[in-house]
Amino acid sequence: MAVHSAERIVVEFRADEGMALVRLNSADVREFLGRSYALVPVGQEGGYLDVDADLAALLRDA
């Protein structure tokens, strides 16, 4: 794992309606990703997520 000195990560979201910038603490993001990869190994995401069913459920409940 590479070590970087940046304290913050900036994520930019864009949509037709506008834009949002989100600033995140780098240490928090590293911790979150480490726990995520421990639970769901890289390349195995499809076995843990059914995007079509989840999207259908969201739209049904909306």
Write up this protein.
- The protein is α+β, with helices and mostly antiparallel strands.
- The protein has one domain (8-61).
- Helix content is 40%, strand content 26%.
- It is built from 2 helices and 2 strands.
- The chain has helices at 26-39, 51-61; strands at residues 8-15, 18-25.
- It has a two-stranded antiparallel sheet.
- The chain starts with 7 loop residues before the first strand and ends with a helix.
Q: Could you give a quick summary of the protein structure above?
A:
The chain has 62 residues and is α+β, with helices and mostly antiparallel strands.
Q: H/E element string? A: EEHH
Measure the end-to-end span. Answer: 40 Å
Placed side by side, the strands forming the largest sheet appear as 1-2
**How large is the count of helical segments?**
2
Residue windows where pLDDT falls under 50 for at least 5 positions: none
Summarize the SSE layout with pairings.
Elements: E1 8-15, E2 18-25, H1 26-39, H2 51-61
Antiparallel strand pairs: 1-2
